[in-house]
Structure formats: structure tokens, C-alpha cells
């Protein structure tokens, strides 16, 4: 393309955006969705919004390390800079090949995100980004560079500048500007600078060496040492304030061989594998952990079935209740907090909203229990992926130094879903069965999103990633540290191509200490899915997990020591009934239940008869019912209901007055406030529930009765909250626009831009900052009618029924009844506008296209 045919260079960011097509403009709006919240009226407003401090900070925070280094290099370059100048700052004098290869892509990202504009001969960093990244005493640059010679000598006397120029071996000049220019030319000339430094004392070079990579500032006394005086006299150090000197940027760049950063990082760190297991081993291990996850959540909510812990006044669980829950689940407290938060995120757990507010299972929990095991797991895993509540924060402190409690406020971290997806995506990029080195995963994430002003271990995203790795293992998304097949499907990565490194790994597993070579290409791209896509992925994960889970059993093994062994998971009716009839003694691959008088009485209280219990055990045991167990059931059943407790406050009645005499004579009954009303009736000051509990602690087996004298069947009715929805994740800024919204936004921006940039006829005031044209109603009507006859296009201002103002370019077709029907060039359709909503009209230039 000749110089004459080349389009003119853009003079502003707005002009650069105006030259973009819909695809690159849409890419900008996707990467920076805050720019269309709300939709700007035109491209000028879009460019203005793209340069605001809040938007630029957000965009910079989402750059990878090398792209950010490229922006930082542009901030210390001249404005504008050429591509070759930028390449010199990033690749150095040695032209690092990796940097040379990576720089075009980094620059494309900066251009796409409207942080840089202009051609390769005039690269400009957005002014706000330059202000944020350029070196300043108040906020040093990550490059470690100081001010330029021109900036550092801005307040220096002309005589002092001339003295520096002369001492440096340059000819004196007639003014300070030319003197500074000459000094800058010396410092940027590699040959002359090498000659100047060749004469420097060794200890002076040591001073420069200490300052070269930053910070560039140092302290000096009023009478500097000779090694410092030599540098000050030649401008290699320049005073910035009394007692403070700085290494000029040009000098530092010479000593650095042109590098803006000590260690450019054009290539992301490789995620290394520490072990490779057979995929079948990974899947079975993950499935076992998935089954444990389901059992743990069931146990948690069964423990809270009749109403769980009370809700703290500030919200959440108390420390004591969390400890009790951890003991009940036999897990550490942080793990218990994870299960509690997971059940809450899945909508299975909530506060009941009563006056004495407690936590309890929701009605959705009952529906969840009836679903197949794999579907129940996929619901938990999907909720975990999308949740912004972060269990790892429990026990920490908030900004006001208050303890963060499980289920309480302050646990939302909007970046958590993105970090979980990214961690799992990195695992999906490894060969199948490969377990990653956690340190390399964290290093990769820090390269993709560099921490800002925080040590690596204090970086919030690093902590989120560490929690994501451990939680994925707990939940069964990973097994032995490697991503399982159902975990890949959950991400929508089920069709990921098997990597060559995974082939032929053999049946054995490598040891955890073996460092394995891993591919260097980027991982399988996995991004958060839309709700519909996630539903499909979750269903696929459930299908892959189903064959890995053990099939529920319909039998147990009864033993003579009053125990029953369940050699695997039990079917729902059997598990529910056995949970009432016996107490769980130990859990694991096989669950051991123990029968006790209390557990048998619990079943009788629930309405079962002794014959029902004998029939149940006979039907579901692969071994004969042991005689001790049969005797236990018959003995408890014989005494069950012999005593009757009702409301007086409470009373006890029994046909055998000898039993009542025994109760009255027992010292343990003193606290019940018993007195005889009749030979077979005792009255009590305690309430019926307290009286039942007291008599049972004395070894009796009383039964409660109604006011009519009938035995009350005290089934363990579950306490449920009213219908509750799962907590909504807290968004990490405006959502990424979908295709429909993006197309509508682009159309509106283009329309507004056409209206604001279309040439007007001479004498018509141009639009300023989106200002609408203003004309009287008579003039508006006359201009519209004339345009109908001539077929000319007009520029109008229009205010819709909601009060939103906009500019439009229309070609009137008909004017009647207070309305104008026109072809709207900005929306590419024929529309009818009420004349009273048109603020004004202006004619367009004859060549307006």
C-alpha cells in the first residue's frame, strides 16, 4: 500500500475505535464489560469511559505478566513510541528470541483492550494507564526505573546543568534545553556511554550497580564522598531533593543493556506433573471420595434433621457449634466448614426464619435424597464450581477484625469461581492421570494474574487456588491429585484430546518424587459455561461417575455381638430404617451398626412393633437373626409402654403400682417432683418431655400418650425450612455480555456515533458531548415537511418515553397527525416518531455518507 493510499493515523483513541470493525470492537466489549454498563451513546463516550481510572485499573489487573510488562515498558518509553523502541525495552540489546516472538501478541492484547492505540510507528499508551504505570517518587514503577534526565533536571539551575555538561565532556550550550538534550544524547549513545564509564572509579560503578535495578533513589550527605561526587559532577546521579539523588532512566537503561525489566517473562511457567497414575486408578479414587462426600453431606443434614444449631445474631454458626459438627462428622473444623458451606451453596441447608432461628435442611434436600447418587454428586460439584462463598476464610478476620464464621457474612469472594475453573483447566491440560505440582500451578496462576502489592503467599488468588486444589480432592473432582474423567466432563472438557505423554504410560504409577516432563503448549481451553451448557456438562459427569460408584445393597450381616455390618452403601428404605433401629458405630467402606436398648426403644417409639422388627431383620439379613438380638428386641418391647406419661404438667400411670413405688423410692426421681394421685397414677412438676427423659435415664421404658389416652407415635419428623433458593454468587464486576446483548450494544453505539459524526450543513452547530439539536416546533415541522419533498436526511434529537435522549439520522417519508414516519439510518429500519418528542432538527451536509 502506498503512502497516499494508507489510511491516516488516528489522532485519538475514539478515532482508533471508530476504525475498528464489529468483531474487534465486540472483543473489546467482551474483555471489558464495564464499558457497556450502561451502553455508551457513541464511540467518543466509549473511548472516554475506556480511559477512566476505575476501568483502566480493572483492565490492568486482568493482564498476564508479560502483557503487563509490555504496558510498563511503554510507560517508560517516549510518547509516542515506535515498535522498535518497545522491542528494545522488552528484549534488550541481545534481542531475546522468546520476547521477540511474544511481543506482537502482547501488543495485540493491549490494543484489543483499548489500553494502547496507534500504529507501530506511533504507539500510545492510554493516558490514565501511563499515569498509573510511569515511575514517580510516590509510586515507583515495577521496572525500578527513575525519571528521565529532562524530568530530573526540571528544577535545576542553568549554571549547574552547564557544569554537568562540561564535566561530562560535552560542549557547553547557550540554554538549558539544548544542554539537557545533549546530555540525554550522551546517555542514550551506547558507545559514548561505554567510554564515559570506562573512566569511572570502581567504587563509583559499585554505587551505580546498587541502584541500577531499583529503587533508583539514594541518600547523600551535604559533602558527598569522592565516588559520589564523580557521579554527581557528570550527571550520572542527579539531585531531586536535599539529600536525595536519583539514577536517571537513560543511565539505568544503558547499564541494563536496554531492558526495562530485570527478568522479562514472555513464556508462562509450565505446569509440572509430579506423578502419573493410570486413569482408571484416578477415576476410582475420585469416585470413592465422591461417595464419601455424599455420605458426609447426608450425615451432616441428618444430624440437623430436627433443627440444627441456632443462628448467631450477626449470622452464621458459632465456634462451638462448628466444633460440635466437626466432631460429629469426624473431620477437622476447616473441612467441616467446607461441607456446611457446600450444603448451603447447593440449596440443601438454610435458616428456618423462626423467632428462635435455627439452621435446618430445606425441602430441596428431600428431593436431592431421592435422586441417584451420581446426580446428587453433580449437583454438589456444580454448586461448588459456581459458589463465591469461600469456606477457607472461616476462622479468619474481616476488615473490622471480626471473626468470620461458617454460614455467616463476609465469606463471598467474587474471584473464587474463576479461580476454580482456571485451576481445573490447568489440570485438564495435563496428560490424563497426571497429578500436578501444586507450586507450579500457583506459579502459572501468578503469571496469568500477577499479584499487585502482595507477597505471593498473601495473594488472595493464590489462597483461592490452594483451597480449590484441596476442595476438588475432597469432593472427588480429582483423585490422587489428578483430574478425573467426570471432573473433565464437569468442565465441559470431556472431549479433550489425549496427550501423547499420557499414552503408553504403562500399568504402574510413577512415584511422587519423580519429576516428569510435561508438554509446553497451552492447556485445553476451559471457560465457565452458560447455565444451559453447565447443565449438559453436569449430566455428562453424572453418566461417567455412575459406573464408578458402588451399587446400593439391600442386605446387612447381623452378628452375635449385637452389631450389623453393611458391606457397602444401603438402599434408601433400608438405610433409613436401620438408622432408627441401631446406632452407627463406625463408618468407612463397611458401616457397622450397634443395637442397644435405646436404639430399639427409638424404633418402638416410631410406631414399630416387636414383630415388625423381627420381620424386618429377617428379610434384610444374609445371616440368621442372632438370639441375643431377638431377646433384646423382645425385652425392650415387653417393657415399652408399661408406663404412660401425659400432661398434668405431666403424669405417670401404670397398672402395676409396685413399679410406681419403685420410682418414688428412687433418689434419681427427686428432681421430677413426683407425687401419687392414685394407686396407679403419679403427677409430676416436670413437663412430659423432661419426665420421659428422666424415667428413661433411670432404666424404664415409658411411652407418651395423648389426651385421649392413646400411645403417641413419636416418629423422628424432620424439621424443614420453608422453600429456600440457593445463595446467589456475588458477581465479579459486570457480567460478560452474551451475543444478543453484544449485537444490540454495537448497533446502538454505531447508531449514536453516526448521529454525532455525520457532517452538518454550514451554519449548523456541531454536536458537543452528545448535545442534542434544539429547534422550535414550527421550525421542526417545516424542516420535516421539506425533507419529505426533497428526500434529504436529517439529524434529530429524540427523547423516548423513559426519558432517554439520543441522536438519530432519519430520512422522513410522511408527516401527519403529529407523527413523522421515517427511515432511521441509525437503526436501519422504518420507524414512526411523535413530533413532540423530537427536541430539534438540523440538515446534513450534501456529502454526508
Automatic annotation (TrEMBL):
- In this chain the WYL domain maps to 779-841
Which InterPro entries does this one have? WYL_dom (IPR026881), XPB/Ssl2_N (IPR032830)
Q: Where is the signal peptide?
A: none
Could you tell me which residues belong to the region Disordered? 498-520, 754-773
Query: Which domain of life does this protein belong to?
Result: Bacteria
The UniProt record lists the Helicase XPB/Ssl2 N-terminal domain at: 556-678
Protein's name according to its UniProt entry: DNA-binding protein
Amino acid at each position: 500500500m502506498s503512502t497516499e493510499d494508507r489510511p491516516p493515523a488516528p489522532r485519538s483513541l475514539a478515532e482508533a475505535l471508530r476504525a475498528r470493525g464489529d468483531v474487534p470492537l465486540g472483543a473489546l466489549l467482551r474483555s471489558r464489560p464495564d464499558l457497556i454498563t450502561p451502553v455508551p451513546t457513541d464511540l467518543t463516550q466509549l473511548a472516554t469511559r475506556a480511559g477512566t481510572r476505575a476501568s483502566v485499573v480493572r483492565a490492568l489487573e486482568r493482564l498476564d505478566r508479560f502483557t503487563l510488562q509490555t504496558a510498563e515498558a511503554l510507560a517508560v518509553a517516549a510518547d509516542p513510541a515506535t515498535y522498535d523502541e518497545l522491542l528494545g525495552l522488552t528484549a534488550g540489546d541481545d534481542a531475546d528470541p522468546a520476547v521477540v516472538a511474544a511481543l506482537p501478541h502482547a501488543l495485540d492484547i493491549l490494543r484489543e483492550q483499548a489500553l494502547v492505540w496507534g500504529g507501530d510507528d506511533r504507539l500510545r499508551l492510554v493516558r490514565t494507564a501511563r499515569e498509573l504505570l510511569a515511575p514517580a517518587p510516590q509510586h515507583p514503577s515495577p521496572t525500578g526505573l527513575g525519571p528521565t534526565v529532562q524530568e530530573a533536571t526540571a528544577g535545576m539551575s542553568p549554571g549547574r546543568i552547564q557544569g554537568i555538561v562540561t564535566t561530562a565532556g560535552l560542549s557547553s550550550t547557550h540554554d538549558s534545553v539544548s544542554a539537557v538534550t545533549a546530555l540525554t544524547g550522551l546517555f542514550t549513545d551506547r558507545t559514548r556511554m561505554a567510554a564515559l564509564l570506562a573512566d569511572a572509579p570502581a567504587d563509583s560503578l559499585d554505587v551505580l550497580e546498587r541502584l541500577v535495578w531499583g529503587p533508583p533513589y539514594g541518600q547523600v550527605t551535604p559533602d558527598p564522598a569522592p565516588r559520589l561526587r564523580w557521579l554527581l559532577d557528570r550527571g550520572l546521579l542527579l539531585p531531586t531533593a536535599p539529600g536525595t539523588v536519583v539514577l536517571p532512566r537513560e543511565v539505568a537503561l544503558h547499564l541494563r543493556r536496554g531492558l526495562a525489566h530485570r527478568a522479562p517473562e514472555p513464556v508462562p511457567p509450565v505446569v509440572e506433573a509430579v506423578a502419573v497414575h493410570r486413569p482408571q486408578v484416578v477415576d476410582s479414587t475420585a469416585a470413592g471420595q465422591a461417595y464419601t462426600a455424599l455420605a458426609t453431606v447426608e450425615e451432616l443434614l441428618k444430624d440437623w434433621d430436627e433443627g440444627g444449631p441456632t443462628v448467631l445474631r450477626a449470622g452464621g454458626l458459632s465456634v462451638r457449634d462448628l466444633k460440635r459438627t466437626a466432631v460429629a462428622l469426624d473431620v477437622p473444623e476447616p473441612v467441616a466448614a467446607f461441607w456446611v458451606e457446600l450444603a448451603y451453596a447447593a440449596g440443601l441447608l438454610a435458616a428456618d426464619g423462626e423467632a428462635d432461628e435455627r439452621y435446618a435442611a430445606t425441602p430441596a434436600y428431600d428431593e436431592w435424597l431421592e435422586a441417584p447418587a451420581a446426580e446428587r454428586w453433580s449437583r454438589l460439584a456444580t454448586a461448588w464450581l459456581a459458589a463465591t462463598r469461600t469456606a477457607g476464610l472461616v476462622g479468619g478476620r474481616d476488615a473490622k477484625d471480626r471473626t468470620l464464621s461458617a454460614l455467616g457474612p463476609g465469606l463471598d469472594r467474587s474471584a473464587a469461581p474463576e479461580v476454580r475453573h482456571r485451576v481445573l483447566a490447568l489440570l485438564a491440560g495435563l496428560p490424563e492421570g497426571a497429578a500436578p505440582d501444586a507450586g507450579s500451578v500457583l506459579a502459572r496462576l501468578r503469571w496469568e494474574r500477577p499479584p499487585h502489592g502482595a507477597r505471593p503467599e498473601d495473594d488472595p488468588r493464590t489462597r483461592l487456588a490452594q483451597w480449590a486444589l484441596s476442595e476438588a480432592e475432597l469432593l472427588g473432582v480429582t483423585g490422587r491429585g489428578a483430574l478425573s474423567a467426570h471432573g473433565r466432563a464437569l468442565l465441559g472438557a470431556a472431549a479433550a484430546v489425549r496427550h501423547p505423554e499420557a499414552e503408553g504410560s504403562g500399568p504402574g504409577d510413577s512415584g511422587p518424587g519423580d519429576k516428569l516432563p510435561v508438554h509446553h503448549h497451552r492447556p485445553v481451553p476451559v471457560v465457565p459455561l452458560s447455565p444451559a451448557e453447565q447443565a449438559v456438562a453436569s449430566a455428562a459427569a453424572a453418566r461417567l461417575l455412575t459406573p464408578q460408584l458402588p451399587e446400593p445393597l439391600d442386605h446387612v450381616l447381623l452378628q452375635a455381638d449385637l452389631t450389623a455390618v453393611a458391606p457397602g452403601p444401603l438402599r434408601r428404605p433400608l438405610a433409613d430404617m436401620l438408622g432408627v433401629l441401631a446406632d452407627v458405630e463406625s463408618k468407612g467402606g463397611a458401616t457397622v451398626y450397634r443395637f442397644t436398648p435405646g436404639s430399639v426403644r427409638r424404633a418402638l417409639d416410631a410406631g414399630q412393633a416387636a414383630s415388625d422388627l423381627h420381620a424386618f431383620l429377617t428379610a434384610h439379613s444374609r445371616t440368621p437373626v442372632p438370639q441375643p438380638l431377638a431377646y433384646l428386641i423382645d425385652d425392650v418391647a415387653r417393657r415399652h409402654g408399661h408406663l404412660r406419661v401425659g400432661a398434668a404438667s405431666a403424669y405417670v400411670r401404670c397398672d402395676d403400682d409396685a413399679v410406681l413405688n419403685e420410682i418414688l423410692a428412687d433418689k434419681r426421681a427427686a428432681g421430677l417432683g413426683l407425687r401419687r394421685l392414685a394407686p396407679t397414677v403419679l403427677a409430676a412438676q416436670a413437663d412430659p418431655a423432661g419426665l420421659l427423659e428422666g424415667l428413661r435415664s433411670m432404666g424404664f421404658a415409658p411411652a407418651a400418650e395423648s389426651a385421649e389416652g392413646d400411645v403417641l407415635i413419636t416418629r423422628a419428623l424432620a424439621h424443614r425450612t420453608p422453600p429456600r433458593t440457593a445463595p446467589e454468587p456475588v458477581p465479579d464486576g459486570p457480567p460478560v455480555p452474551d451475543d444478543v446483548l453484544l449485537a444490540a450494544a454495537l448497533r446502538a453505539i454505531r447508531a449514536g456515533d453516526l448521529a454525532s459524526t455525520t457532517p452538518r450543513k454550514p451554519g449548523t452547530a456541531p454536536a458537543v458531548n452528545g448535545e442534542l439539536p434544539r429547534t422550535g416546533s414550527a421550525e421542526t415541522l417545516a424542516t420535516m415537511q421539506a425533507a419529505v419533498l426533497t428526500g434529504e436526511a436529517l439529524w434529530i434529537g429524540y427523547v423516548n418515553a423513559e426519558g432517554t435522549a439520543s441522536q438519530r439520522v432519519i430520512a422522513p417519508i410522511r408527516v401527519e397527525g403529529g407523527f413523522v414516519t421515517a427511515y432511521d439510518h441509525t437503526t436501519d429500519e422504518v420507524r414512526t416518531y411523535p413530533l413532540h418528542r423530537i427536541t430539534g432538527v438540523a440538515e446534513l451536509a450534501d456529502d454526508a455518507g
